[in-house]
Amino acid sequence: MPMKVLITGGAGFIGSTVASAFVERGVTPVVLDSLVTGRQEFTDGKIFYQGDIGDGALIDGIFRDHPDIAVTVHCAALIVVPESMADPQRYYRVNLAKTLELAGHLVRNRCDRMIFASTAGMYRPEADLSVTETSALEPQNPYTRSKMMAELMLEDLSAAYGLRVISLRYLNPIGADPRMRTGLQHSRPSHALGKMIQSYEQGVPFRITGVGWETRDGTAIRDYIHVWDIARAFYEAASRFDAILPPVQAAGRQRGYQVINLGTGDGTTVRELVDAFREVVGDGFQAEEALPAPATWSARSSIRPRRASCSAGGPSTPSRRRSGTRSSGRPAAASWTWPDPDPHDPAPTGPPARAVRSFRPNQAGRTERAGRVTPPHPSEATSRAHA
Ligand SMILES: NC(=O)c1ccc[n+]([C@@H]2O[C@H](COP(=O)([O-])OP(=O)(O)OC[C@H]3O[C@@H](n4cnc5c(N)ncnc54)[C@H](O)[C@@H]3O)[C@@H](O)[C@H]2O)c1
Q1: Whole-prediction pTM value?
Q2: Which domains are delineated in the chain?
Q3: Helix 56-65 and helix 98-108: axis angle, to 10°?
């Protein structure tokens, strides 16, 4: 696949890792990022344009400089859920309006292949807490709605202008680039793994918030996915783009839009994550049971990939679910090892809230146990709460 790929948001957590995955497979990434949240050092050694995805003149210039760009990977976005609730206008402007502008710039420059970084947080989970591409959509906050609206918009554009879009939906990326070139800019994410790292560093027990959920071991389940698996899936989608979505004329049809979920298939419970983390750091890591955090926690959910052809590392059959980088141990290790690149981001201080041992759900506990199905993933219960 000798070509170049334009990666918007390529200085961010996922975009930078995707860029490295392309480099390792001989594809040259061209990074476009405003650095509003991304890190310039994540673009080291790569072709980098600092600027906005809505800047048509800049994008025309990029395509003049690199007429061999064959695919655009669109990762640029604002992703912090609480921030999107406080300032939805900004989120709709960047995630929706600027995506519309970007799509126009790509069509004008005859780049008709886009891979859109999307979120599985827009699904309403099925009764078994899993989601598939056919699950109902029920986004719960402006961030997630902005991503869903962007998808609907891209689907309409694809029907009219020949733009072809593969939308990859995932949740809960963890870990870092295996060669530690890039990782999460915020080294202490407040999802469960981030809190484990924090507890271990502070020498206090990690609190398993809720053990009465209707999951396989009673603790909440999330479909954590290694960011390198996501990156490989983006590469696979790019390298097989025309097989997944043939050009409209060749296919003799109008469809130019395809959704593909990325997930492990069965998710990881908090207890399993505790075990994986203990494997990484040793027996010194303690965990104890506590009451569920109010409202924000839910038991959901895992992602059942249906279109195995594009899932990271090959077909995602149950027998492979725990193989390769899919297991929670390796991303846990990578997250633990990943250094803090932000010197202005001191570790949180102060005593942890008092843990309550031996919690059992009360009789009325359906809401307490099964929880609301609304917040799509643990990071939404948190301060960074990216999705
Ligand atoms: N991190 C997650 O939990 C998660 C889950 C599901 C989907 N996603 C999606 O994956 C993509 C990447 O997420 P991430 O975790 O890497 O986020 P990130 O914040 O680390 O990266 C986003 C990048 O986009 C850049 N950017 C933002 N607005 C821009 C603009 N107008 N023009 C140019 N660049 C701009 C930022 O500077 C940043 O480098 C996003 O589209 C997000 O919606 C993320």
Answers
A1: 0.82
A2: 4-173+224-261 (3.40.50.720), 186-223+267-303+319-381 (3.90.25)
A3: 40
